[in-house]
Design goal:
- It is a single chain.
- The chain has helices at about 30-40, 55-70, 120-135, 150-160, and strands spanning about 15-20, 20-25, 75-80, 85-95, 105-110, 140-145, 160-170, 180-185.
- It has a five-stranded antiparallel β-sheet with strand order 1-2-3-4-5, with helices on both faces. Strands 6-8-7 form a three-stranded antiparallel β-sheet.
- A hairpin with a 5-residue loop joins β3 (about 75-80) and β4.
- Helix content is about 25%, strand content about 25%.
- α1 (about 30-40) crosses α2 (about 55-70).
- The protein has one domain (about 5-185): Aminopeptidase, CATH 3.40.630.
- By secondary structure, it is an alpha+beta fold.
- The termini are far apart.
- It contains four helices and eight strands; from the N terminus they run ββααβββαβαββ.
Length: about 190
C-alpha cells in the first residue's frame, strides 16, 4: 500500500462548496483513518455488499481523487465547520457501470453514524445539486440506491428529486438481495 501522504495533492485543501454548517473539499491525509472507520462500520455499509478493508478504502480514495482531477468534481470530503471533523463525503460522479440511464452524473453521499439525523446529507446534497446545475451546467442529475435504503431515498425526496422507477444494478449478482435499486433524477431547473 502506498504511503497515505503520497496520495493527496496538498496540505491546504481546495474548497469546492460551503454551506452554513459544512465544507466540501478535496481529500487530506487526515481523512484516511476516519474514512476507513466509516467504511468498516457494518451499519453504515448495510446497503452495500460488504464493509471495506483499509486497502479497499485507500483505493477508493485514489479513485475519488482521480475523478476530481479528471472532471473538476467528484465525491468531496465533508467536514463540519464547527469542529473541523471529517464526517463522510457528498458529491457528483460518473457511475462506472452501464444501465439504461447511463452515461449520467450521479449525486451520492455517505456519512459516519455519529452524523446521522442532523440533516447534513440533505444540506450537502442540495449544495451539490446547485453546484452541478450552476457551475458544471449539467442538464440532469441522477441518484440511486438499493430499495431497502429508505433513509437515502428520503434524502433524494427532500432535495427535490423525482422517482423514475427501478433497475437491477448490473454490479450485483442476479438474485442478490441488494440488486434491485430505486432511481431518482432532477432536471436542471434553469434550462
Amino acid at each position: 500500500m502506498r504511503e497515505i501522504s503520497t496520495i493527496f495533492t496538498s496540505m491546504k485543501p481546495e474548497i469546492f462548496i460551503e454551506t452554513s454548517r459544512l465544507i466540501l473539499r478535496e481529500w487530506l491525509p487526515d481523512d484516511a483513518a476516519p474514512f476507513i472507520a466509516l467504511n468498516s462500520d457494518k451499519d453504515v455499509m448495510q446497503y452495500f455488499p460488504s464493509v471495506k478493508t483499509a486497502e479497499e478504502t485507500m483505493a477508493q480514495i485514489r479513485r475519488i481523487e482521480d475523478h476530481i482531477k479528471q472532471h473538476g468534481f467528484g465525491f468531496f470530503a465533508m467536514e463540519r465547520k464547527d469542529n473541523g471533523h471529517f464526517i463522510g463525503f457528498t458529491g457528483l460522479v460518473y457511475p462506472s457501470f452501464d444501465a439504461h440511464f447511463t452515461p449520467c452524473v450521479e449525486i451520492g453521499w455517505r456519512l459516519n453514524k455519529k452524523s446521522w439525523g442532523y440533516g447534513y446529507a440533505t444540506e450537502a446534497a442540495k449544495a451539490c445539486l446547485e453546484f452541478g446545475f450552476e457551475d458544471i451546467k449539467l442538464d440532469k442529475i441522477y441518484s440511486f440506491t438499493a430499495v431497502q435504503n429508505i433513509p437515502s431515498e428520503k434524502v433524494m425526496q427532500r432535495i427535490g428529486m423525482a422517482k423514475e422507477g427501478y433497475f437491477e444494478h448490473p454490479a450485483m449478482e442476479d438474485g442478490h438481495f441488494l440488486q434491485r435499486h430505486v432511481l431518482y433524477s432532477l432536471a436542471n431547473p434553469g434550462g
